[in-house]
Amino acid sequence: MIRKSLGRGSLLLLAMSVPAFTTVPALAQYMSTPPPGQTSPPQRGTAPAQRSSARTDSLTITAKNGQPEKQQWADRYECHKWAKDQSGFDPTQRPPEGVTTEETNSRRDQYRRAFTACLEGRGYTVQYGQPPSPAVPPAAAAAVPARSHWVRSEPELTTRPIQGQVQGGYTGAVGHSDNLLDDGTNVGFGFTWFPTASLPVGLRVDGSYSSFRGRDAFLNQFAPNVYHAWQDIYGADVDLQLDLAHASPRSKLYLVGGAGWYRERTTLREIVYETGTFCGFYTCDTGTFAFRATDHETSPWRSSWNAGLGWEMAFADGGSVFLEARYRQINPRNARTQLVPINVGLRF
Question: I want to staple 60 with a disulfide (CB 3.0 to 4.6 A). Which of 34, 100, 112, 127 is the partner?
Fold first, then answer.
């Protein structure tokens, strides 16, 4: 029997998380956008103030790392989407009614800063020039048709106040428990609450149920006639989740840890001997007879603590998959239960 340890659980988590970055297919979205540096003519009937706010200055984007054109358009679209969410300004749309020119210009500046920072982080040089010369006839600009592109848009992780989760996987018995129990399985569910999107800390509650088969050393703790035993462990954890800094909007690493309460329900199957008179369908006999019996023992609620590492990746808008491993210890210390659950789950 190979001995388990916390270190191997962590290595398994990291090893499984590396290839997962390339296995989840991205969604495709249709995007119609003019070539770089091309400006759209003002709409007929637009008020002078609105026409000034909606104009697009000349823009030069240079790929520093030799990115292909398809990648350039994909990066530009994703950065446009991110900058629009950050600033509340969309240069492809007219400003809403009632918005002042000063407010529109302020939001446009915020959009440019966010758009520029995003593209520079992806290996581009971004340069804004002066607005197009009014001497260029609008008809000439309109004569160049917009090009249509299919751009792969990857889903992004979104921080919602409350997220539900379901999970399940493998639970390794380690330390003292490894001598008594075989490895088992577990299932669970819970929710995570993020009080504010500005802090990467959330409160997490998870309920779980695990089942293990007893080894010979476990059976020997009871009557000598016990021939089979298993243990079910159920309870809940109240943890803090700390999201680590991450460069990709699609995935993240996080730390999780806290306290919990668990009960252990032991089921024993044994051979018992009874002396007396026992009657069957046709006759009665007197003597000592062997019977199979099942007995249950349930412990009181016991305190526990846990700590672990997780990795989460978005696979759709509002949905993500996560992989995590923890170390959990259930008191009392002189007869502690030591487990390493490794779970795969869904958040929604």
Answer: 127
* DSSP state for residue 109 in the 8-state scheme: H
* Domain 6-23+157-347 -> CATH class: mainly beta
DSSP state of 331: S
Distance CA 9, CA 7 (A): 5
**CATH tag, 27-153:** 3.30.70
Q: DSSP 3-state helix, strand, coil percentages of the chain (rounded to 5)?
A: 25, 45, 30
Using the predicted structure, report yes or no on whether residue 20 has a pLDDT greater than 90: no
Q: How many CA atoms lie within 13 A of 54 on its CB side?
A: 18
Q: Could you give the residue range(s) of every CATH 3.30.70 domain in the chain?
A: 27-153
Contact predicate 230/212, CB 8 Å: yes
Q: What pLDDT does residue 35 have?
A: 41
Report the candidate in 151, 142, 90, 95 with the shortest Cα–Cα distance to residue 115.
Answer: 90
